[in-house]
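Structure record:
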Amino acid sequence: STFLRLSDARLSTEDWDPAMNKYRRVIKPKEEVVKDEEEIRVTAAGSVSTYISRAAKLFNEMDKKFVTITATGNALTKAVTIAEVSKRRFKGLYQVTKLFNQELIDEFEPLEEGLEKVTETRNVACIQITLSKDDLDKSAVGYQEPLDESLVKEVDQEELT
């Protein structure tokens, strides 16, 4: 089977194979993954203030002890921003950050007869940030103590929106 580099967003015009005009990406159905109530999945398109409001609702209204912020690809920096802002809005939050890669396989089907299906395997960076009111595993690689309380400015729900 033929392996081609197909990520058009990352290719310059001289890298683009004109033969790829003969292929179409196969849209895969999204997996129905049930997320935990405490999980905040960050997308590159979402707004930081919306995610901060969700964290406030989880910690204050729903009295959750922890929140897990997850993101992939271009949303990683936004996830870190959300964690840092949250730590400055809610006192005593311990943090553990995990970074890992997830392998994705893109499939491209030919638009002409006689051509074979093409696949591309790529790795996407992922982050999982757990913020907890209770102490977390101090031996974890991404462990961080809560910020000094003088750096935290707690706000009420109305001020967050």
